[in-house]
Specification:
The complex is a heterodimer of chains A (216) and B (472).
Chain A lengths: L3 H13 L17 H13 L18 H12 L6 H11 L4 H12 L12 H13 L10 H4 L17 H13 L7 H7 L4 H13 L7
Helix pairs in contact in A: 2-5, 3-4, 3-5, 6-10, 8-9, 8-10
Chain B lengths: L5 H22 L10 H6 L3 H4 L10 H8 L11 E12 L8 H4 L7 E12 L4 E15 L5 E19 L4 E9 L44 E10 L3 E10 L23 E12 L2 E15 L11 E17 L2 E15 L9 E2 L5 E2 L5 E15 L3 E12 L21 E13 L2 E12 L19 E9 L1
Antiparallel strand pairs in B: 1-2, 1-18, 2-3, 3-4, 4-5, 5-6, 6-7, 7-8, 8-9, 9-10, 10-11, 11-14, 12-13, 14-15, 15-16, 16-17, 17-18
The chains are: A mainly alpha (216), B mainly beta (472).
């Protein structure tokens, strides 16, 4: 024991200087590239090609670059404080540099979205399509497509919704509706305010099936 | 001494709950949401990222990857953490005993049971460690009845890991130096991890769930091993290792363990683990096998005779299913271990007599023991949880187990123990859990009734266990 502790400490001190930049999982080393972090860390939940297995976690493949940059900055500044934000992303993003954020966004934006099998029921998807394309006029809910695009492919900081996990979309609509935990998306607070729980389930089920006609 | 009247039991439980509540109210009025032990400080993430429903130590798919990549995700930070357990045990019947004070020490008393210190976290991009040292507040008792605390090495895992990942291939591989076969395992149906609430030492806790049979590796902890492992495409996990006595540079892995209690192994003893796993949607499942062949010296203080070893062969199968979709966390675990035990020559085929001097069959040269456990749990919002477990130990009858001692004896010589444990728990903040377990026996030490030959029945050992478990 007496011999082992100094030996281990010496070994640790020696090893502490070692970095393995091409395969590092160090979230506080500015020299680690965004691509490496995406592969070694982000992939654990979001998938190495940006398609997440768990519906708790959003797909990032093909997500718009400006939106991803904005979200990482919102997590880092703790401005975005919904549960999945502070539970998972505050820590991951706390030491990311501007450069790394840019590289991470570029990495996932460049990934090809994978075709998904529908997560919702067909009647939900049909009802969701009506809301997505036409809104709910008598409750002043505008069509989602007016900002997110006819196929939900997004536009600038309006995120891609196409192929997103229905459960994730539904939970985020709930966040917009009931809280100010995502101030960057405050416009959605107004939009989502009058959606019923059923509306949310339907529209989430529909966007998960987009784009119509397959992957884009 | 008679067993406590019902009203006294109720008073005791109420007192304990009130005390626990008072502790919660005074200690946690301004608990921050992310004040965490060392791994959480390292990643900045909440406990639920790595622990299913926040119920440490059970890991989520992400938690498994964090562990297998050598605890290296995040940034180096102060690598210290601590945990402590306050508990209260209540045994159903304390009257069928010659000495209830000794047989049920600290029954119905709220005690500071145990505490652990950790040095854990990222060392380099490839090296990380999890080192646990545990203080047992009731480790020994002197003749005057006073308890004395003792600290010793607990779970230890130091590893080197690397990961080759591309869109088509994902290979995590590494080497672990650890002191407990299966402690390096990422699944919680593994021998080292399925039993999770620390067990207090006073005899009143002898019948709580943590002391019921769990599928385990006979050579146990506080030994020193080196294992290589690989996890391919999050589908196939293979770990192969060898264990020896913790000595020389590895002696810290059994630090604090008294010499006469230390596990001394003969040579290098092989351990293996293979699992297949798959994740789809919110579901993930694993089926696996593990095993170890070990030769353990009968007397840790005398290893001069190479024939004085117990030869164990443990082979287990286990499975774990999880459904994790906020706010729900469901886990089902199944584990089975078959242990074959060959005794050293001086313990095998020995004559035994019963309490009246009548001869019993000679002791066995070899025993077989089977332990099965199934457990299901549900947690809502990572706060409110419940679980139910079934355990069943069976095995060969052996006169060596014959023991006419009251309460803890066994007159059948059969090791059978069977029962159920139900539990409810509450996690008010992520680093504190309060739980209530009730364990019921329908078989104990080989019999449902009169297992000790003095009228004690399995059901007399039914136990209530309240614990307050904090980590920081």
């Amino acid at each position: 024991m007496k011999r082992a502790i100094p030996s281990l400490l010496a070994l640790a001190a020696l090893a502490a200087g070692c970095a393995n930049l091409p395969r590092s999982r160090d979230l506080a080393n500015p020299d680690v590239s965004g691509k490496t972090l995406a592969e070694q860390v982000c992939s654990n939940c979001h998938g190495v090609t940006g398609t997440a297995t768990s519906p708790n976690v959003p797909n990032l493949a093909g997500q718009l670059d400006p939106y991803l940059v904005k979200q990482l900055k919102e997590f880092k500044s703790h401005s975005r404080s919904d549960p999945v934000g502070f539970e998972y992303m505050w820590g991951i993003s706390r030491k990311l540099t501007e450069k790394q954020i840019g590289e991470l966004a570029a990495y996932f934006a460049a990934q090809q979205p994978r075709p998904q099998s529908p997560e919702g029921r067909s009647e939900q998807i049909a009802a969701g399509r009506t809301i997505f394309t036409g809104g709910v006029p008598d409750r002043q809910i505008p069509p989602c497509s007016s900002c997110h695009g006819a196929q939900g492919l997004g536009n600038g900081v309006f995120p891609r919704l196409a192929g997103q996990h229905a459960d994730y979309v539904a939970k985020q609509l709930g966040v917009f509706q009931r809280s100010t935990e995502r101030p960057e998306g405050s416009v959605m607070n107004t939009v989502a305010h009058n959606l019923t729980r059923e509306n949310i389930g339907n529209v989430a089920a529909y966007v998960q099936t987009l784009p119509e006609g397959g992957s884009r | 001494m008679q067993s406590m009247p019902r009203s006294a039991v109720v008073r005791s439980i109420v007192r304990t709950v009130v005390l626990a509540g008072a502790f919660l109210c005074t200690a946690l009025p301004s608990a921050p949401a992310h004040a965490l032990p060392t791994f959480a400080r390292q990643t900045g993430q909440n406990c639920v990222a790595c622990h299913a429903g926040g119920q440490y130590p059970e890991l989520t798919p992400y938690g498994r990857l964090f562990k297998l990549t050598g605890y290296t995700i995040g940034e180096r930070t102060l690598p210290f953490a601590a945990m402590a357990v306050v508990s209260d045990s209540h045994v159903a019947n304390t009257s069928k005993s010659d000495d209830p004070r000794a047989d049920f020490q600290k029954n119905d008393a709220l005690i500071f049971a145990t505490a652990s210190g950790f040095v854990a976290g990222k060392v380099t991009d490839n090296i990380g460690a999890f080192l646990q040292v545990t203080y047992d507040n009731y480790a020994t008792q002197s003749d005057d009845g006073k308890f004395h605390g003792h600290t010793s090495a607990d779970n230890m895992d130091i590893r080197y890991a690397d990961r080759l990942i591309s869109p088509t291939n994902d290979l995590i591989f590494g080497v672990t130096a650890n002191n407990n076969p299966s402690v390096a395992d990422p699944w919680n149906s593994a021998a080292a991890w399925m039993q999770y609430v620390p067990v207090p030492s006073p005899t009143s806790s002898s019948f709580i769930d943590g002391n019921t049979p769990y599928p385990g590796i006979a050579a146990g902890g506080n030994i020193a091993g080196l294992a290589a492992y690989a996890y391919w495409n999050q589908l196939l996990y293979v770990e192969l290792g060898g264990y020896r006595t913790a000595s020389g540079i590895a002696s810290f892995m059994s630090a604090g363990v008294p010499k006469d209690e230390k596990t001394r192994l003969q040579g290098t003893n092989p351990y293996w683990r293979v699992t297949l796993s798959r994740e789809w949607g919110a579901h993930n499942i694993m089926v696996g096998t593990s095993g170890m062949i070990s030769d353990v010296y009968d007397d840790p203080l005398d290893t001069s005779d190479p024939r004085s070893v117990h030869h164990f062969r443990d082979i287990g199968i286990d499975s774990q299913y999880q459904y994790l979709l906020d706010p729900h966390a469901v886990t089902v675990q199944l584990a089975y271990m078959r242990d074959s035990h060959r005794y050293p020559y001086f313990l095998a085929d020995q004559p035994v007599t019963d309490i009246d001097g009548n001869p019993l069959p000679n002791t066995n040269t070899r025993d077989k023991t089977n332990v099965f456990r199934a457990k299901g749990s549900y947690i809502y919002q990572a706060k409110y949880g419940a679980s139910m477990a079934f355990f069943n130990q069976t095995g060969t009858t052996n006169s060596a187990l014959y023991d006419p001692t009251r309460v803890y004896g066994n007159i059948s010589g059969n090791p059978a123990i069977r029962g159920w444990t139900s539990e409810i728990f509450y996690t008010p903040v992520q680093y504190l859990r309060i739980g209530l377990q009730y364990t019921m026996y329908d078989r104990y030490n080989g019999a449902a009734r009169n297992y000790d030959g003095a009228g004690r029945n399995a059901g007399d050992n039914n136990s209530l266990f309240l614990y307050l478990w904090g980590a920081y």
